[in-house]
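Much of our argument rests on the idea that a fold can be written as discrete symbols. In the encoding step, the backbone of a single protein was reduced to a row of integers, each denoting a local shape. We regard such an encoding as a compact summary of how the chain folds. The record that follows shows the chain in one-letter code together with its fold in token form:
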Amino acid sequence: METELCTKIKDIGDYIKADVISLMAPMQHNIVEWVRECIEEIKEKRDRLIVILETEGGSIQVVERIADLLRHHYPNEVSFLIPSHAMSAGTVLAMSGDNIYMDYFSILGPIDPQIVSRSKGDIYIPALGYLQKYEELISKSKKNTITDAEIAFLIAKFDPAELYHFEQARDLSVELLKKWLVKYKFKNWVTTRTKKIPVTPDMKEEMADSIAKKLNDIRRWKSHDRGLTMRVIDKEINLSIEDFGLDKDLNDKIRSYYRLLQDYMITVRQSMAIHTAERYRGN
């Protein structure tokens, strides 16, 4: 099956005239080295890289390292293709692309980085949910409407050092998303979609800020795991997405490859995989 997978991913690359890497994994520190090794093994690199991305999210610091690594090897163009989902920090990673390819089934998510909580047994928890609850309790305290039980909960559950760590992760997520959108996604944006007004650098900055605020607004989306479809991203967030489903041949190749990859990972009982035409690595 690995031989067939390599054949299928090479076929995708030949069709779109780009190198292709599949990244199916949480954004955790152990995968950075895997990505580096797989990228370095691609010989005679093309000018473009397409990353087939599927992730539940994870560390924003890992996302930054992966984005920098990909740009080191492919300075001209890195794009992301989402066959199913790229949530949280995975959404931030997708925003570092020159293009984002989705179809009607694909989803991104609110940018809510997951942080290791030392006080809760080294488990990953959504930073924005943690901060939102803390801010709610502080607001009630200022209004003198907080209960004794809530005061006890506040003292027992919220560590000032962790709060600072979560705030830093939130701010870094927004900072990276804004920087990457302006530098990569908007680099060829020259006129507005409807009125065809020339786009200025200030307009790019303002649009990136607006997108970051919307994706960072967990109250708007109600849930860390809320799926944002291509239509929602286009209409509500005002971010242009490329629909790979419109190209029937490409769509067929992606679906055939993705189904086989999912079947193989289930067969060998692996929850993460990084794959190029040269190598499959899973765990």
